[in-house]
Amino acid sequence: MIRSKNEILSNIDKFEPSAEGNWLGLDTLLAELWQSTKISEDCLPVLFRVFERFPDDPSAEVCWGIIHGIESANLDYEKQLRESLLRQPSHLGKIMLFRLEKSKVSAQQI
């Protein structure tokens, strides 16, 4: 049975890695989100809160899936990303902002 977008987002919002540092549960939730629904701007607060809750966690490689998923959805996410970084600076949030700024410069050069 396909779960609703809100149910998946709720599970992402509550996600905690296991005591052993296993992030596969988040990877599974993200895959379910990308496959089951059209990503929209209402998903962004939950996805950016993952960065805020784990701002410098080096084991959060699975969070790169958030970056790629948001970027591929062709959303206007800059304002919400900046707000997230103001609440809690995060390594991946900064990377995402850098990539966004770089793409703006590249687009201006065309």
Overview of this structure, please?
The protein is mostly helical. It has one domain. It is 65% helix and 0% strand. It has helices at residues 5-14, 24-36, 44-53, 64-72, 78-87, 91-109. Helix 1 runs parallel beside helix 3 (44-53), helix 3 (44-53) runs parallel beside helix 5 and helix 5 (78-87) packs antiparallel against helix 6 (91-109). 24% of the residues are buried. The model has no long low-confidence stretch (mean pLDDT 90).
Keywords:
110 residues, mainly alpha, 65% helix
Low-confidence stretches: none
Provide the number of structural domains: 1
Q: What coarse outline follows from CA principal-axis ratios?
A: globular
Q: In angstroms, what is the radius of gyration?
A: 14 Å
Mean pLDDT: 90
End-to-end distance: 45 Å
Strands, total number: 0
Q: List the total number of helices.
A: 6
Query: In percent, how helical is the residue content?
Result: 55-70%
Q: Write the element-wise H/E pattern from the N-terminal end onward.
A: HHHHHH
